[in-house]
Description:
This protein is an all-alpha fold. It has 15 helices and no strands. It has two domains: 38-68; 71-301, MetI-like (MetI-like fold, Orthogonal Bundle). α8 packs parallel to α13 (240-246). The longest helix is centred in the first third of the chain and has 34 residues, at 81-114. It starts with 8 loop residues before the first helix and ends with a helix. Residues 1-22 have low confidence and may be disordered.
Amino acid sequence: MTKPSTVSGSQQSKSLPVKHRQNKPSFFAAWRKPSILPGFGLTLGFSVAYLSLLILIPLMVLMLHAVGVGPARFWQLATDPRLVSALQVSFFSAILAAVINVVFGGIVAWVLVRYRFPGRRLVDAMVDLPFALPTAVAGIALTALYAPKGWIGAWLMPLDIRIAFTQAGIVVALVFIGLPFVVRTIQPVIEEISREQEEAAATLGASRFQTVFRVLLPGLLPAILTGFSLAFARAVGEYGSVIFIAGNRPYSTEIAPLLIFIKLEEFDYSAATVLATVMMLISFVMLLIVNLIQTRTRRRYGYGS
Length: 305
C-alpha cells in the first residue's frame, strides 16, 4: 500500500490554474461598488454632461460676469441699500412662508392620510392646483381676494388689517405656491408610518403629546426638512404671483427677482448680475445648512445616512 503524497500549501497554490488564483483587486475595482444595473461609466458621464450643460456652466458664466465687474464695483453694488432691502424682503418672506407651509402642510398631509371623509379625493386634488395654475393667474386671484375691496380684504379693513400691497401679501402668495411641495413630500412618509407605533406608545403610557413629538416627529423630520427646502427654494425665486399682490414699492415690498428684471430693463447688466449672484450664494448656503441638518438627523435616529 503506497503512502499518499503530501503537498504543501504553497505547492498546491502553485498547481492551481491561473483563473482560480485570488488576485488582489485593483484600486478602481476596490473603489467601485458592485451595481445591479450595468453601464456605470456611461451613465456617470451622461449625468455629469447633462448637469454641466444645464446647471454648472450657466452658473459658472453668471459667476464670471459678476467677478468681471471688479471687487470694488461688486461690493458697491452688493451693498446698495435698495438691493439689500429687496434681498431682505425676499428671503424673510420665503423663510416665513416655508415655516408656515411646514406647519399647516404637515397637518394637511396628516389629515389626507389618516382620515376618511367625504370629499377627501377632491381636497387631495386641490393641493396640486398651484402646480398647474400659472403664477400670474394666482397673483391676480389673490390680489382680488385680499385687496381693500376684495372678498376677504373688505372684512379685514374694519380691523385695520391690510394684506394686499404689503409684505403680508407677499407671504400669502408664497404660502400658496409652496404648499404642494410640503404636502407631497411629507404625505408618503406618513403613509409608511405604522399605526402600531402609536398603539405601542400609548400602551407604554405615553401621552398624545409625547407620541407626536417623541415617536412620530423623529421619523418625519427628514421629510419636513426636505419640504422646507423645496418650499423655500420655490419661494425665494418666485416672481409672477408676487408682483401683483406686493405693490412693488422700493425699500418696502420690492422683491429681488423684480429688481433684477428692472435692472435688465435699464440695461444695468452689472447690477442684475451681482444681485443674481448674491441671491444664488445666499440660497446655496441656506440649502446646504438645511441638508447638513437633515443628514445629521438621519444619522442620529438611525434611518438612513
